[in-house]
Amino acid sequence: MASAAQDFQPRTFSIKLWPPSESTRLMLVERMTKNLSSESIFSRKYGLLGKEEAHKNAKRIEEMCFASADEHFKKEPDGDGSSAVQLYAKETSKLMLEVLKKGPVTTAEPEAPVIDTPIEPADTVFDISGGKRAFIEADEAKELLSPLTEPGNSYSRICLSNRSFGIGAANVAGPILESIKSQLKEVDISDFVAGRPEDEALDVMRIFSKALAGSVLRYLNISDNALGEKGVRAFTELLKSQGDLEELYVMNDGISGEAAKALSELIPSTEKLKVLHFHNNMTGDEGAMFIAEMVKRSPNLESFRCSATRIGSDGGVALAEALGTCTRLKKLDIRDNLFGVEAGVALSETLPKLGDLVELYLSDLNLENEGTIAIVNVLKESAPQLEILEMAGNEITAEAAKPLAECLTAMQSLKKLTLAENELKDAGAAAVAKSLQEGHPDLKELDVSTNLFQRSGARCFAQAVANKPGFVLLNMNANYIPDEGIDEVRKILKAGENSADVLGPLDENEPEGNPDDEDEEEDDDDEAKYGDDNGKDAGLGSKLQDLKVEAEED
């Protein structure tokens, strides 16, 4: 026994970061597509890529970078793959920037931008956001900003994002910005105090605010600055002087109820506002009331984003009612909140007033069948022109499938439909798929992953998209499609106008699973949590049985 103990060697775990899974690669392509086709300082300078062109470029970039990084990894087979991951990320960013700077090259009809802004000559745009995020102090700020001090310069759009200004750098920047503020139209100072102590960051904000106060801006981006109420009030002088804003971005800023109140109070007028984005804040119901007040005062709003802001039923109802004044709205994104059925019903009463909607994002709102049915019943009549509809994660079952299908039948302009993470099962899948099979010539993407359907549901969705010209992606991952069902889907796609390449990854599909087991598992979980003493061990066992060491993928 002693000898055996001496020979025992502790087990070690080897964590490999490379290669990434298929789902991770697909996620990267989707993220790049979004970045390439979203409004940015580059799109204003070089033009905005359409989603189809962006997707083609994203897929090409990912494949090239994966091949390069994989070749690199083969030269270091004993490593953990971290250098391959770094190369993968670095080359991806580099090639994305090249695509952005080339601008759109397709001859297809371009997408209508939210705001018609003419592209100005390059010498009107000043941008220091490229490269790695870095701290800058006085000497570097003086060098970086020197083009703004040249006599007769015509810079009207500046982007100082991705550089962390210290107090010294801010004192250099202040007088320079003040000297050109009369010619400025667009200012991006997002993510410009990262990593600074709170007191220093607030002082930097005050310096920039004072320097830019009185400028007549149409575009202001103060996102990614962890503002909170103190930060919002640090921008008091700048915000109070802005009565002509057309675009305002306050995303990922820690906007609480008090901060939302301050923002609503400080901006004198939002009558000209066309874009208002509040994504990823901790606004809650209290803050939603103040945002709703801003929305009410913004009759010309065309794009409103208030996603991931912790807004519940009361705040959702207030926002829904306020949006009724925004009759020119083209894009509405309120996903990932806690609206519930009541707010969903309130939204259904507002939607008929929004006759220009093109994109509607309603995922993860806890709408359930009742809220979903209320919404799709009005969309059927009021928004047949919709191009993007997302309703993932709303506990939609086959009960709501018929009214949902009737709504989709009317939406012949759909380009992207997302119904992931619902509970359609085969019956609901058949109804929805049938509504998409006829017409819908522009449909490019369909995401019905995680919907508890099996072979027949998968077959119906494959038949629905097989003959759509230009179709790009069918995501049916994380369902219960048997192997023979997957083979059938591939045959259907090959026989149509599209190849099987449009079928997304199936790495999370459970070919031997059964959707009816979901209910049994929930019952087992309840028994483990609330049952007798044996239930305590069962609950612990269920947590430990799936415990494993996994690499965290980029």
UniProtKB/TrEMBL annotation:
Sorted alphabetically, which keywords does the UniProt record give? Cytoplasm, Nucleus
Give the matching SMART domains.
Answer: LRR_RI
WPP domain residues are 14-108
Keyword field contains Ion transport: no
List the Gene3D superfamilies: Ribonuclease Inhibitor, WPP domain
User: Where does the record place it?
Assistant: Cytoplasm; Nucleus
Q: Which InterPro entries match?
A: Leu-rich_rpt, LRR_dom_sf, RanGAP1/2, WPP_dom, WPP_sf
In this chain, composition skew of type Acidic residues spans 507-527
Where composition is biased (Basic and acidic residues), the residues are: 545-554
Example GO CC term: the record gives: cytoplasm
UniProt KW Lipid biosynthesis keyword: no
What SUPFAM superfamilies has UniProt attached to this entry? RNI-like
Span list, region Disordered: 497-554
- Its domain of life? Eukaryota
Q: GO molecular-function annotation terms? A: GTPase activator activity
Protein's name in the database? WPP domain-containing protein
- Species of the source: Triticum aestivum (Wheat)
